[in-house]
Amino acid sequence: MTDHTNADTLRTPIVAVLGHVDHGKTSLLDTIRGSAVSEGEAGAITQHIGATDIPLDTISGMAGELIDPTDFDLPGLLFIDTPGHHSFSTLRARGGALADIAVLVVDVNDGFQPQTEEAIDILRRTGTPFVVAANKVDTTPGWNPQDGQPIQKSLEAQSERAESMLNENLYEIIGQLSDAGFSADLYWRVQDFQKNIGVVPLSALTGEGVPDLLTVLMGLSQRFMKEEMAIDVRGPGEGTVLEVKDERGFGATIDTVVYDGVVRNGDRLVVGGQEEPIVTEIRALLQPRPLEEIRTEKEFEKVAEVGAAAGVKIAAPDLDRAMAGAPVRVVRDRPEVEVVEEVKAELAEIEVDTAEDGVVVKADTLGSLEAMANALREAEVPVLRAEVGDIAPRDIAVAETANQDEHKAILGFNVDLLANAEAELENADVKLFTNDVIYQLIEDYETFVEERQRAQQETVLDKVVRPARFRILPDHTFRQNDPAVVGVEVISGTLQNNRNVGTFEGNEFDRVGQLSGIQKQGDDVDEARAGERVSIAIDGPTVGRGIEEGDTLWTEVPEKHAKILEQELKEEITADEREALAAYLDTKRKRDPFWGK
Question: What task does this protein carry out (predicted)?
């Protein structure tokens, strides 16, 4: 055990590794672990639940001359292996991010991808310091690998052509960081890491550049986080739930990262739950067995206590409603009510503002739920209900209660549809969207809404009377009445059959009759567009009485239709229809300024 007598002991900084799906996060962690193991220091590396602890001596062994261990007071680095993918980056600790520092892994050939952008967004929002690991340098054409070497040593062994190709890719990434609002450079050129982001070229496969990454992480932590790492080592433990898991023999357990104080077996514990904070008592603290003992039946061994920073599996009653991302607090010698209030307050910070009407949102952790809520707020999509967890039948029932059809939707970030909800979804008028990239999820939903609105507008447009202005041509009377048949030219708008038509006498509209047929070059048609000449049959008037050759006539647009055309469908109708509508409205409004408003 570490010596806990010193109150200002520094804890291990928590490092999160994030990046796009296949850019090499896992292999980078494996390399860091693996090279430490191959240094013959298997015993030094301790596997925690959901985390790997790498002590300073091991790091300095791997980094060689890059690190002088006497420069550091920090005990090492704790890498958290995040559940699945990048959702971890939204895990919280007391309102901030759980990780003290982050590594953003970017494939040097692939540059920024959707999840890279998303990770950057989260780092910016939480203010987490980070370095960029430009991975896969070994895939540069003509690369000559120097296993495990610091990157500058490795660069000396490359041809000019390989180096310049790599540089081109690196500068592309530096440019993309700059577009995202971060000033960045290759790490050895960075003078001030608080103002600039260091880019570390490396290969998780060959280990080149990994010593540099460890050096930069240690340096950053030592320089900028020493104060934050000073904790009350013996205080009541505080942590964050990484995952809720069922374990044989223990029931529901929580994989937790402890970032402050100590957690002991038997402690009373308060954990953020789906409805209320859960108050329970620790029955067992479980750590993975050391690497060399992994062959044994039981993969975990029980420990009496765990001090920050560490990953541990906590077994206790009633944890099945615990939430990933929720706070974990040991009560110890404080009033239990106070601790419950603390947890409530922290959960309230993440409360999503819900509306009377809106979509249902489900996410895998509290942090990603919060990130979803922020993104939806920016997209102006209202939320009816937001919760952590897989999609259950009750979510479908809630989504169905939405007033507007486009809100009858569930947006699931990184969650599954429970088996018992599948049939319900098929029978419900609810649309399900799932994705593990937040903005992709929102984009899919927005596209659905737009397509829906367009379809609705098209049906409305089919039913609406379109405006038209047309002129009776001289010498084109084919029949005087019952019905009158005349040749006309459409000046603007769309002339539709079966519409009432009339003339304006001053500002008064005077209906003269109804169209009962339109013929274009001898064929019956439903409508005629601006510029076309057609013959029309009008029931009602007689040519010479009521209408004359040379008269300008209008389609009569009902007031309700005029309002819809002007306020909702203006973008959907053609320019000449807009012109006919404007002229029609102007004339009508000279008499009644509020007509059609």
Answer: Function in general translation initiation by promoting the binding of the formylmethionine-tRNA to ribosomes. Seems to function along with eIF-2.
Q: Are 1 and 46 in contact (CB under 8 A)?
A: no
Annotated binding residue 85: yes
pLDDT digits 0-9 by tens, 100-136: 999 999 999 999 988 888 889 888 888 889 999 999 9
Give the model's pLDDT for residue 89. Answer: 60
Q: Residue 21, annotated ligand binder?
A: yes
- Residue 165's pLDDT band (boundaries 50, 70, 90)? very high
Q: Is 19 labelled a binding residue?
A: yes
Q: Is 127 annotated as contributing to ligand binding?
A: no
Which three-class secondary structure state does DSSP give residue 135?
strand
Q: Is the pLDDT of residue 543 over 60?
A: yes
Q: Is 138 annotated as a binding residue?
A: yes
DSSP 212-242: HHHHHHHHHHHHHHHHHHB--TTSBPEEEEE
24 labeled part of a ligand binding site: yes
Check: pTM over 0.90? Answer yes or no.
Answer: no
**Residue located via tokens 């009445």:** 481
**Strand ordering across the sheet containing 310-315:** 278-281, 268-271, 327-330, 238-247, 251-260, 310-315, 284-288, 300-303
Q: Is 262 annotated as a binding residue?
A: no
- Check if the beta carbon of residue 277 is closer than 8 Å to that of residue 345: no
| 137/36 Cα distance (integer angstroms) | 21
- pLDDT of 41 > 50? The answer is no
**Is 82 marked as binding a ligand?**
yes
Consult the annotation and say whether 136 binds a ligand.
yes
137 is in an annotated binding site: yes
Q: CB under 8 Å to 184, separation ≥6 — which residues? A: 132, 173, 174, 177, 178, 196, 197, 198, 199
**Whether 2 contacts 46, CB under 8 Å:** no
Sign of CA dihedral 564, 568, 574, 579: positive
Q: Which two tokens stand for residue 233?
A: 């080592």
Burial of 289 (0-12, 13-18, 19+ CB in 10 A): middle
Query: Three-class SS string for 238-288?
Result: EEEEEEEEEECCCEEEEEEEEEECEEECCCEEEECECCCCEEEECCEEEEE
What's the average model confidence in pLDDT over 81-95? Answer: 63
User: Do the Cβ atoms of 281 and 268 come closer than 8 Å?
Assistant: yes
Length of the chain: 597
Residue 235 annotated as binding?
no
